Every structure is written in C-alpha cells, then in structure tokens.
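Late entry, evening session. Most of the bench is empty. Finally got around to the prediction I had been postponing all week. Sequence below, unchanged from the version circulated by S.P.
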Amino acid sequence: MAPKYLSYFPKPLLDDLVSGRWLPVIGAGMSLNAVLPPPAKMPLWSDLSKSLADELQDYSPTGVLDAISAYEHEFGRTRLIERLADLLHLDKVRPGPAHREFCTLPFDIVCTTNFDFLLEKQYDLERQDNRSVHPVVDEDQLSINIGATGILLLKLHGDLRHPKRLVVTEADYDGFLSNYPLIATYLANLLITKTAVFIGYSLDDPDFRQIWHVVASRLGKTRRMAYAIVVNARPGDIARFERRGVKVVNLPGTRDRYGEVLADAFAELREYRREHAGPTLKPTDEKPLEQLLLPRDAMSRLCLFATPLDVLPFYKQYIFPLAEAAGFVPVAASDVVNLGESVSAKIDTLIDRAAVMVVDATTRNTEFELGLALGRAKEVSTRPNRQPLHVIPVVVESTELPDTLRGVIYMRRPVVLSEDSDFVGRLAVTFAHLAQEMGHVQKIEPRRLFDAKEYRAAVIAAMSLLEAELRQRLEKEPWENVERAMSLRQLFLRAIRLDRITNVTEDQISNWMKLRNTAVHTALPVGRNEAKAVVEGVERILGLR
C-alpha cells in the first residue's frame, strides 16, 4: 500500500530520522490517543483548568496556570496531585495505537512534558521486544549510563509519582531554571545537536520556551530547524508555531481521527527509516557491506551475532567460520560504524537486514537485543520476498531461563567456551540446516533482482551466490576442521585449478569481480548488459540455466 503521509514530511526531516538525529518532544495532545472505557476521555490542558476552576468558589481564573495555581493555594499540593490523577484517569487509561506505533521507532532519547505514564506503559507492553524505558525525573539520574538497554525518557515536568518534582503551577514554572539547571542545560544541549520534533505539544510552556529562546538567540541562523507534527492544523496554529521558529508538518485528516492519522504516519516513518538506513552503517569488513547495499526486500545472507564482549573473540574465531561455510555473512554490531547518532537505530537496522541472528543472551544488553530479534521475527512483512528472521538464542548451562525465552527454542552453552564442545557442533548443524532451508530462494534472487532492474544489487547477489556455492563445493570439511574462509579471488582460482568451473574463463571471472567491486565500492552505474552477463554466467556455472 502506498504511503499516505510521507510526502508531507520534508526530505531533510526524513534524512534526520534515518541518521538518528530526531529529538521527539511529546506533549499532552499525544495523550488524547489513549484508550479509556466510554464515555471517559483524556482531557486537554485547558480541560484540566476548567475542571479545577469549577471547584473554586468566587474565583475566575485568567488562564490554565492561574487555575491550577489557585487550586493548589486553596486546597494544597496533595489534593492537587490527587485531582490530577483522577482527571488523567491514571487507574484505567491505556496507550492507544499512536503510542504503539511511536514506540516502535528506535529513539535513544524521548522528551515529554506529560505527567502520565502512557509511554512507559507502552514500552512495557513491548517487553517481548525488551524495549525497556528509563524515565529520568531528577537531575541525579542524568549521569547514569544505561547503554543500549533501552530508551531514556526525559520527563521535563516530572510526573505524578514525584509530587515535589512536578512542574504544574506558576511557582513551579517560574523556578524551573533555577531549581533544575542541569536538566535545563541537558535539554539545551539536545536542542543544539538534534532536530526537535514536537508531537502533541503546543510549545506554550514558559520554561521550555525560555530554553528554546536562549538556544535560538545564541545560535541564530545556525540553529537546527524544528518541526511540529500536527493533524489538520488551523492557520492560526501554523502561524504561532512558525512565529516561534518551528515548521509545521500538517497531516490531512479530521480531529476525530487524530490518533489513527498519527499511528499510520509513525508506521510509515518506521518503514521509511528501515528502507533507507542501510547506507548509514559502514562495516569494517567488505562482506557485510555487500549485504547492507542490497535493497531491503532482497534475500539477505547477513548473520548477526549479539554476544557479550568477553566471549565475542571466541565466536569470531570458532563460530563465524561455521556461518561462512554455510554461506552466511557473519557480523557483530561492534564491527559496524554508525554514521548516524543513535545506538537504537543501529541495532534496529542490523536486525532488519539480517537473515539469521545468534544472540548469546547472558547479559542485560544481549537480553535486550534478543527481545528485539524475537519481536522482529514475529512481524508480518508486506514484502513477498522478505523471509522471517531466524533467531538462535543461546543461554549458559544451569542458569535461569530469561522470561523472553519462555516457549522459544534455544541452545545451551557451557560457562567456559571450548572449541570442542557439543555447542559448537550443534551451531554448525543449525547453520547448515538454515542454509538448506533458504537455498532455493537465494538461488533465484539474482534473477529476481535483475528482472526488477536492480542491476547493482543483481551483480552483488549473483557473486555472493557463486561464492557461497563454491565454498560448499570446495570446503566440505567436518565442522571441527573449518578455519577462516579463503578470499573470493583465492576461491575462484582454486575452483578453476580443480576444474570445478569449466564453462567460464579466468578473464571472465576477473571482469565479474571488477564489476562487483564497482557495485560495492563506488556510486558508478551498473548497466543492464553488464549485470546480465554476470547473472547469466553464474546461473550457467551453477546449472541454473
């Protein structure tokens, strides 16, 4: 189905999404998408003001802050917190479709001024993906490094579980910069280095506007552009945002479909990011680079390894060659340089492009990655050629099984890894089985890409197929004898010398390799006739014609 909303997003904003430079700022409007038993509805900021003002006698508030401040003055902060909890339906509200789709986007940091817990609830619902969220309310939490284990949710105005930290009255707003200077500085730094994207946020809060104004006044024309995603925005709304230096992405739709429009837009953004994220990753090895250059719907040979750093050398020395011998291209995240700025986006892209993923789920980080992989394996692709991700979970013998693996087939490994352990042999058998299972689709992939006029990808896929098939023919050794695979040139020379390739000349092979190197390492075009010669030549060698 063709995207409905992507065309409304400027290309620079989409580029920033792909490269991991978005800073989402979520406001009260996003909470309108929450699910409540009828006839209850989530209130707007102005609705909160009216409800509180109705309980005040002989008082006519001049605005939202005035009403909330007067309520606290009259009944105390404890009563104010209790009423806010009631009005926000904390005991029964659930995230809606817009929250669900938003939380599938791989952000490292999300900011919100909301007091509720809808984002936390949605990330918790994604526990099968282990996309854990780390709310940051107080300044002393800023120094804690959570690594790649989840999303940092910066709750700028606190939440209802931290009454002293809540920014809700005039006095709270007036004292924000002096009371929480580190949070203000941290936010300012994010606004300097990332593209702020306001979702359900009006930019009316005086503390945020003050920080935004300081950044604008200091940087002037070099300040990064900011955007607001709005549905059916009125001219006055657009004018107010642009007066504050924010461009509006005005999505078509009606106000009663606000949540549905946002959900569809977020889903389209997720797929766009995955579609275009391959070039933002630069592996340190050539073989993974080939796979990342293929179109997203191509049949990948990438085998992603997620392991603790202390056992990664063992995997590289003894397990990677087994994957190579089966025709896969092994890679670890540490072998890939991310040209963007998001760790979450890097992991999301690698998992999206992988055909197989081995996860040694023995640390918090790798358990997180296992959850992501299992979640991706369950996704139903809209692309007919995309195969489900094959996940191989690994846990240590005699340890408690992670909740993520309940009902999932997994492998046990010894605490002390050894090259002669049964674990290594079982992995070799598993790789061989998966290679056989995917073999037919991989053999017809170069022709499919050629017919789709993806000539560069067809050349890469054809040469990868030839290499994998020759390795199967020339390197059929018991798994315990498998060493680091030969280079592509060595492989071809050996095949020719042993007469395993009889219907092609060495000059032709040399020309094919040059064209393959052009396709992988340059932006030069690959012509139809060049690609046809390679695809048909490989098909002839492998007996596919």
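Two things to note before I forget:
The chain has three domains: 6-38+94-275, 43-87, 277-541.
Residues 422-451 form the longest helix (30 residues).
Will write this up properly tomorrow.
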